[in-house]
């Protein structure tokens, strides 16, 4: 009897010792959570209906649903905006990018997690991928179900984002999105379904990895330029050049190109058919926009996968157009805006579209 008690005491002491040793071996890191709104902060009328108001609850309320993250990191939270991401805009992007850069330059901050609506998450993730100057992880996270729904996906996604942000193997991988247990790269991100929790994909290259049992497992890495290796710097920029996206389809005319010229846009991205092809009328209007008004034109495609390749059916060099390769129109708009902060030369813009 006595020896059993002694055994339990010794076992208990060993447990306490190993627990404190493991805590000593892996001191908790600081992770900042920057909230911007979206469904993840949304509130529904009931727990079963799909309708809800996006960006209705604050970051502090949101984090109450995932108390477990306090065991993983010292969490500091800031509310940068509280909007549905359909209203995301250049002003919030510039503010966000500057704040992320400030935070990641602090020695005690290991990473940043940004909560964001899913509608334009691919655009914000790519903007940060090109303007955050740090190897430390920046991770965007959202939810497809409001925080009040049965089976809300937000808390699990936030937990997975924080465990990914603290992991040393996440360093140097560019801006990522963690949702539905997948780790996705910002350079090939697409929302592929209007409602499904598995909506985000890297449709050309496949995900970077998965989160399993609270740990990231990486299976590939991006070969594109990003973050610390990006040439773009928005720290001194107050306003980004205006770039519009124009769609090609049967019977498309030059109507929207003419409107864009009148509005003094600096660049146009086309969402062409097939390999970025355009109706003759649309292509002619774009040619005039380049020649007569110095507008930069980048051809992309409305097809989700595959490259918009140079020199296929369109002679880009003759028209002074650039081709977006694997960058879809939404991300191409972001890259062209940043490219135009440095150059208007279509060959230089083409170089950027091949490297990023
Ligand atoms: N439209 C909202 C947004 O993007 C809801 C979509 C979502 O977050 O899933 O913020």
Index terms:
356 residues, alpha/beta, Rossmann fold, 2 domains, 8-stranded mixed sheet, 4-stranded parallel sheet, 11 helices, 16 strands, 19% strand, binds glutamic acid
Summarize this structure briefly:
With 356 residues, this protein is of the alpha/beta class.
Description:
The chain is α/β, with parallel strands linked by helices. It has 2 domains: 27-229, Rossmann fold, CATH 3.40.50; 243-355, Rossmann fold, CATH 3.40.50.40. Helices cover 34% and strands 19% of the residues. It contains 11 helices and 16 strands. The chain has helices spanning 2-25, 59-64, 69-72, 90-104, 121-131, 154-166, 255-262, 280-293, 316-319, 329-339, 346-355, and strands at residues 29-35, 43-44, 52-53, 73-79, 109-115, 138-141, 176-179, 182-185, 190-191, 200-201, 209-212, 215-218, 243-247, 267-272, 296-301, 322-323. The strands form 4 sheets. An 8-stranded mixed β-sheet has the order 4-1-5-6-7-8-11-12, with helices on both faces. A 4-stranded parallel β-sheet has the order 13-14-15-16, sandwiched between helices. Strands 2-3 form a two-stranded antiparallel ribbon. The model is unreliable at 17-24 (pLDDT under 50). Residues 37-39, 54, 84-86, 117-119, 142, 144 line the site of glutamic acid (GLU).
């Amino acid at each position: 009897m006595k020896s059993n008690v002694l055994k339990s005491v010794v076992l208990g002491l060993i447990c306490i010792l190993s627990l404190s040793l493991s805590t000593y071996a892996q001191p908790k890191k600081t992770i900042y959570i920057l909230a911007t709104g979206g469904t993840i902060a949304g509130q529904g009328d009931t727990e079963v209906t799909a309708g809800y108001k996006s960006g209705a609850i604050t970051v502090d309320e949101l984090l109450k649903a995932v108390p477990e993250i306090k065991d993983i990191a010292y969490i500091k939270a800031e509310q940068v905006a509280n909007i549905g991401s359909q209203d995301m805009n250049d002003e919030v992007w510039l503010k966000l990018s500057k704040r992320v850069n400030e935070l990641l330059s602090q020695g005690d901050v290991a990473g940043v997690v940004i909560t964001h609506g899913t509608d334009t998450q691919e655009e914000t993730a790519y903007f940060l991928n090109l303007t955050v100057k740090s190897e430390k992880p920046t991770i965007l996270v959202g939810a497809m179900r409001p925080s009040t729904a049965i089976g809300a996906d937000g808390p699990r996604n936030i937990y997975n984002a924080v465990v990914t942000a603290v992991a040393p193997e996440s360093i140097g991988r560019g801006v990522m999105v963690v949702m539905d247990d997948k780790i996705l790269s910002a350079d090939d991100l697409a929302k592929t379904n209007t409602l499904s929790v598995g909506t985000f994909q890297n449709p050309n290259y496949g995900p970077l990895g998965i989160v399993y049992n609270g740990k990231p497992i990486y299976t590939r890495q991006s070969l594109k330029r990003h973050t610390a290796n990006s040439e773009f710097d928005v720290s001194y920029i107050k306003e980004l050049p205006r770039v519009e996206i124009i769609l090609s389809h049967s019977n498309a005319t030059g109507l929207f190109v003419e409107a864009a010229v009148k509005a003094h846009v600096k660049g146009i991205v086309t969402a062409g058919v097939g390999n970025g092809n355009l109706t003759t009328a649309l292509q002619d209007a774009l040619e005039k926009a380049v020649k007569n008004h110095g507008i930069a034109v980048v051809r992309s495609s409305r097809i989700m996968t595959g490259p918009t390749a140079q020199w296929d059916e369109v002679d880009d060099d003759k028209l002074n157009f650039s081709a977006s390769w694997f960058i879809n129109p939404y991300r191409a708009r972001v890259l062209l805006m940043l490219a135009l902060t440095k150059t208007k030369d279509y060959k230089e813009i083409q170089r950027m579209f091949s490297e990023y």
